[in-house]
Amino acid sequence: FKYIIVGDSSVGKSNLLMKFAHNKFTEDYQATIGVEFGAKNIEIEQQIYRVQIWDTAGQENFRSITKAYYKNSVCAMVVYDITNDNSFKHVQNWIEDIRNQSSKTVLIILVGNKIDLEDKRVISYDEGNEFAMKNGIIFGETSAKTGVGIEEIFYKSIKEIIKNMNENYYELSSETCGIKKGN
Ligand code: GTP
Ligand code: MG
Where are the beta strands (DSSP E) in 82-121? Predict the structure, then answer.
């Protein structure tokens, strides 16, 4: 399953990926240049699913490079920072980008990150959840620092993809659906 992670700069996309794939977190901010890659195998009901994740740069000047990665993704995660109002405001733009650039069947997930910083929170759980419900997308909150919520959101998305597959939602013969069948 090919995933892409998008969202404003410094919301914690790279750390979410690092925590998920390698159980690592770094306090120092190192902006992603272009696109970084990570992967992890997940077992669900005796089946192994390999999740390949493209972590994109949030910085504006890389936009033309990162857009090339929207195609061929089965799932797009839009991340905002619950302590940063602007990063939440921009979610709408990220979703528009995804709808314009990705396959029609792309699953969009909204993630509110940095919930360990509860005292600095400016976007409530309900705000995030309501936005997601209005837009018909899956929602979850996470902390890349503590790891809270990360497995849940990936499992949720994978289970949704499996459900969609069972309902023949994807055109598996085409690369653009973001799913490749193994042996
Ligand atoms: P770009 O690559 O520029 O798009 O940024 P990014 O979204 O990949 O952000 P990154 O993962 O590099 O994290 C930015 C900063 O926020 C770093 O200093 C991280 O340590 C910090 N950070 C990320 N996630 C969390 C979190 O869940 N909690 C806290 N407290 N800090 C976090
Ligand atoms: Mg990054």
Answer: 107-113
